[in-house]
Structures are given as C-alpha cells and as structure tokens.
Amino acid sequence: MNIFRKIAAGLKKTKDSMMGKLEALMNSFTKIDEEFFEELEELLITCDIGVETSLDICGELRKKVKEKGITDPALIKDELKEIIAEMLGEDKKIDTSTTPTVILIIGVNGAGKTTTIGKLAARYKNEGKKVLVAAADTFRAAAIEQLEVWTERAGVDIVKHAEGSDPASVVFDAVTAAKARGTDILICDTAGRLHNKKNLMDELRKISRIVHQQAEGCVLETLLVLDSTTGQNAVNQAKLFSEVAEITGIVLTKLDGTAKGGIIISIHRELGIPVKLVGVGEKLDDLQDFCARDFADALFETETDFDYNYERLDDKKDEKEDEKENESVLEKAEDFFENMGNKIEDAADKVEDKFEEIGDKIEDKFEDIVDDIKDKLDGDDESEEGKEETADEAEKPAEKKDLKNGKFGFLFKEISFGKKKKADENEGEE
Question: Using 50, 70 and 90 to split pLDDT, how confident is the model at 128?
Fold first, then answer.
C-alpha cells in the first residue's frame, strides 16, 4: 500500500463526515450568499477545524469567489481544497542531518508516545541507521518494560535506569552513550506530562537543557505526540506544551480512528507548528510522513476520480493476497496442532511403557522378598529340631536368638509353644 493510500484510508472517517456535510450544504443552496458562508463556517467548526481557522478559510473563500465570479455552490470544493493545502504550507520532515540526532518525544499519557517511539526506531533501523532509545519515562508503572518490548521488536538498544530514577540522568547517560557508540538516532521517551503539573513541566525543561548542553551542535527534534481523537483538546495541549518547550513538530496519532482529522489544519494555522508524522494504523509502517497535498487530496477525493478507483482496484488485489496469507496461516496452525497431538500421543505411550516396566520390577522385588522370608522360615525349623537334640541351650548361635527377637519372633514362639505342648502330652502318656 503506497503512502497516499494509507493517508486516504486513515482519513476515511474524517472525509466521510466532512464531505457528507459539505455535499448536503451545497445541495441545499442554489447560490452563494452570506447565509451560505455562515452555514459553511458552522460546518467547518463542527468538523474540529476550529473557530479562528474556519473564519480564515471562509474569508479566503470569499475572496476567490469574488475574484473568479463563482455563483454555483457545487464549484467551491476545488477552491476549498486549494485553500486548505496552502494553509498547511510546505511539508517538513524530521531533520536527521547530524550524528547523533536527538529526538525528544513528549506528550500526555495515552497519546501514543511509546508506540510512536517503537515505530520510529523500526523505521530508522530499516533505513540502516544505528538507533538508541532512552527510557526516561521512569514514573509510569511498566513504561520501561513496554518500551523494552518495542525496542526488541525493532532490534535496537535501550538505555534505562530503575523505576523512579531521575529522568534527566537517564537522558544524560543516553546522550553520552550515543556519542561514544557513534549512534545516528537517539530517541528519548519522557513521562506523560499533564499541563497542570508544574513539577513535570519543570522536568521537561531540565531534560531539554541537558540535551542542548551534552549534544551541542546536534539536531534536537522535540516532537509533541497528540491523540487526534481528542479534537480541539489536542490543540489546547499543543498551545500549553509550546509554552515550555521548543516544539519542532507534531505527531498526530490514531487518525484512522476518528472523524476529527481537521485539527491538523487548526494546529498548523493557529500555532505555526508543522505536523511531521501521522499515525494511520497499528502496523509498524503505519507511521507516515505528513504530506499537505496528499492530505488535501484525500480529504476531498471522490469515488469518481480515476486515481481513487485505481487505488480501489489495488485494494481488491490486496484483499486476495490477505486471504491467501490467512489460508497459509491456518494451514500452518493445523500442521502445528497435528504435530503437537502426535507428540503428546507418543509421550503418553512412553509413560505407559515406563509404568509397566516399574510395575514388573516391583512385582519381581516382592517375589524375591517373599522367597527370602520362606527360606528364613525353613532355616529356623531346622535349627529348632537341632536344638531338641542338643542338651546345652547356652551353645545356641547368637544369630538365631536375634531372629527370634526380630521381625519374625512371633513365628518362632508359636512353633516352640507347639513343640513343648506335644512333649508334655507324650510324658503324660508314659
């Protein structure tokens, strides 16, 4: 999927919402008058473009309509498209011209900072650059562990301290390590900073100061990550963060999950901060460089346009490829479970054989014990007969005495009692 298609897919909800309202507005008017412009201003505001930006767009549109003598509302779409593209200005990418280049990622918790870092690390790694990540978000529980997972996926190194450590010290060590290792890109995570937490904002200033001191002469990109689903609240966050940090660019995440993509226009118009990256999906390559022209084209694209239809044909091709890939995955899963079943069955047979072997050994051992007992009993009977023929009891072997007092003593007592009783009966008969 090429970049334009990704942007178009990511803007689908915004496009459907905004274009649906715009089509309805144009169909409800037969001419362009002041009432039309008032309705258009309200429409743009409801699309999260912002009040000031919406007024500016309508002001520029009034000029173009007057200059070109446009009277049909259906003809204003192309004019709106050009106005928005001009407002977004020239595209600006992340500057990676120095070694190292330090990229400081800031933003509130939940905006997508960790995901953005992981995707950036993988991107630069695939470009052949040496990447190092600093886990300076030491306050949020499991933040370091989450970042470790992403760095492992991307195959890059990480600098970390224990949870609760000073974030500035982590950044200091990371900058030192990056310079020593010849790292191309150093990406620094920071704690999610709420605008009403003064101590956190002070910590951000401290980190920025350390980077400037330790990486003097190197490019420092400070990227603010904003969640596009928050709409105008994202613009307010950008205003507050810009007061304490020299923000060089915006990363707008979750663009594919919202109809509020119009805030891109508002951010650039009101703050003058360029949007450098947009997140249009969950995959590693779904973090894209922002292109103003592609954004405007995707926002105003219609299904009758050739390029759009061409992309839709490619989509069908991709769907077939996805189906084949899914079938392959299912086949591999079936083979895996079949092999596992065979292995489990083999293991069960081996266990059964082992138990049979142990049972045979126990049975043989028991038979040996029984035979030993019989042999000992037979030996004891012979010794009793010899004792009757021997007059001197004191000459009995010590071993036999021990047997009579041992485990089988009761047997010997029974035998002796029977023999004595028989002798007494014989004497009585005499």
Answer: very high
Give the tokens for residue 196: 């009403």
Q: Give the list of residues 6+ apart from residue 306 with CB closer than 8 angstroms, or none.
A: none
Q: Which residue has the tokens 């949020």?
A: 140
Mean pLDDT of 232-248: 81
Rounded-to-integer distance, Cα 298 and Cα 16, Å: 11
3-state class (DSSP) for residue 393: helix
Rounded distance, CA 299 to CA 170, Å?
Answer: 42
Please give the backbone phi and psi of residue 365, each rounded to the nearest 5 degrees, phi first: -65, -40
The β-bridge relationship of strands 287-289 and 275-279 is: antiparallel
The pLDDT of residue 130: 94
Instruction: Give the pLDDT band (50/70/90) at residue 134.
Output: very high
Confidence at residue 186, expressed as pLDDT on a 0 to 100 scale? 94
With residue 66 as reference, give the H or E element that holds it: helix 51-68
Checking if the pLDDT of 320 tops 60, the result is: no
Q: Are 224 and 172 in contact (CB under 8 A)?
A: no
> Within a 10 A sphere around the Cβ of 206, how many other Cβ atoms?
14
- Give the least confident one: 106-115, 254-263, 373-382, 399-408: 399-408
How far apart CA 269 and CA 87 sit, in angstroms, is 7
To the question of pTM greater than 0.70 for the whole model, the response is no
Least confident residue range of 247-261, 300-314, 325-339, 391-405: 300-314
What amino acid occupies position 380? D
- CA 245 to CA 208: how far, in whole Å? 8
CB neighbours (10 Å) of residue 81? 16
Q: How far apart are CA 419 and CA 365, in angstroms?
A: 34
What b/e string do you get for 106-141 counting C-beta neighbours within 10 Å, with b at 16 or more? Answer: bbbeebbbbbbbbbbbbbbbeeebbbbbbbbbbbee
- Measured in whole angstroms, the distance separating CA 18 from the mean position of its chain's CA atoms is 32
* CA-CA-CA-CA torsion sign (237, 239, 245, 246): positive
Locate tokens 């991709």: which residue? Answer: 318
Strand order in the sheet with 220-227: 157-159, 131-135, 185-189, 101-106, 220-227, 249-253, 275-279, 287-289
Which is it for the CA torsion 275, 48, 107, 133, positive or negative? negative
What's residue 294's pLDDT?
80
